[in-house]
Amino acid sequence: METFLKKTFPWYGWLLGSWFPVQYRKAFTILFLTVLLYAGGGVVVPGFLTLEQILLTLKLAAFIALFGLCQMIVIVAGGGGLDLSVGYTATLTAVLTASIMDGRNAYLGIALLVALVLGLLVGFANGVLTSYLKLPPLVVTLAMADILQGIVNAYVAGKAITGRPSPVLVTLAAKLTGVFPNILFVLIPVAVLAILVFERTKWGQVLFGVGANERTAYLCGIDVKKVRFLTFVASGVLASLIGLLLLGNMGIAFKDMGSNYVMPSIAAVVVGGVPLAGGGGSYFGVILGSIFLQALTNLLTALGLGDAGKWLGFGIILFAMLSVYAGNRRSR
């Protein structure tokens, strides 16, 4: 992708090499493609470039980026890690805590406790089965998603889901400060913390080291199984907390409310430059990948292509990005 852009735009290579560190070059490529997407969309769809539309894109992309953090934590550590259970972890959290809070701030603390416990249980199970019993993460987390979906269906049992989020959650996830969505003020500190952890702490170095070369990490005294176990625990807890934000944004809980974020979150990680083999990437890239995918979704919707166009677009982009990364790996 970078090679194509360098040939198409001669100044692109100079800008990329002069101003951006190596770990952020793929992220800048996605930023550049997003600008091109908006420029093209603004020509073919009137109103696509308005501030209102851009802020809506950022709001919706924030949730993809948060789920993308779940995926990145697991993927970076290698071992074929993916977490397909994040969607239904968030859904079950929302369904359970909606009844607890029922529109009151007084029970927000209990809801947070329930979310943490649920996320820990799901992450613990995923981590044990994948890291210690050596079962494939794809199969384990898909099975976990099915189990959680079954629990949601049994809990609902054909009746309407009662309860509402607390006003605090609604303010954080759905309201605006001026023209800016408040969810951005949640994402920004999360992003800063995640980037610092990944790039400036020993834990981040361990994650990248395990993902880059499991054998070398083991010989250096790193407990590879424990590291990968903890990534699934972190993913489960984070997904459960995101479920609270989803509830605040939607205003009600419903079945499948989190499942539609699983595929986009994986796509955002891949598009953002995180190799599925682990050992590299940046969360900044994941955020930009989320924005790009949401902008593409909005454009396809505006063109009348709907969900079919969205999923087709996601699939084509995933194939394209994976092909590019595979080609880059072979050329080294």
Question: What's a quick, concise take on this entry?
Answer:
The protein is 75% helix and 1% strand. It has 332 residues and is an all-alpha fold.
Task: Describe the protein in words.
The complex is composed of two ATP-binding proteins (LsrA), two transmembrane proteins (LsrC and LsrD) and a solute-binding protein (LsrB). Its main location: membrane. Keywords: Cell inner membrane, Cell membrane, Membrane, Transmembrane, Transmembrane helix, Transport. The chain crosses the membrane at residues 27-49, 56-78, 108-129, 135-156, 168-198, 229-254, 266-296, 308-327. By secondary structure, the protein is mostly helical. It has a domain at 63-286. The protein has 15 helices and two strands. It has helices at residues 2-8, 10-19, 25-44, 51-76, 86-101, 108-132, 137-156, 167-173, 183-200, 202-212, 214-219, 224-250, 262-271, 283-302, 306-331; strands at 176-177, 180-181. A two-stranded antiparallel sheet has the order 1-2. Strand 1 and strand 2 (180-181) form a beta hairpin. Helix 14 packs antiparallel against helix 15 (306-331). The protein starts with a helix and ends with a helix. The mean pLDDT is 89.
List the helices and strands and how they pair.
Elements: H1 2-8, H2 10-19, H3 25-44, H4 51-76, H5 86-101, H6 108-132, H7 137-156, H8 167-173, E1 176-177, E2 180-181, H9 183-200, H10 202-212, H11 214-219, H12 224-250, H13 262-271, H14 283-302, H15 306-331
Helix pairs in contact: 1-2, 3-14, 4-9, 4-12, 4-13, 4-14, 5-6, 5-7, 5-12, 6-7, 6-12, 8-12, 9-10, 13-14, 13-15, 14-15
Pfam family, one: BPD_transp_2
GO molecular function, one term: transmembrane transporter activity
Subcellular location: Cell membrane
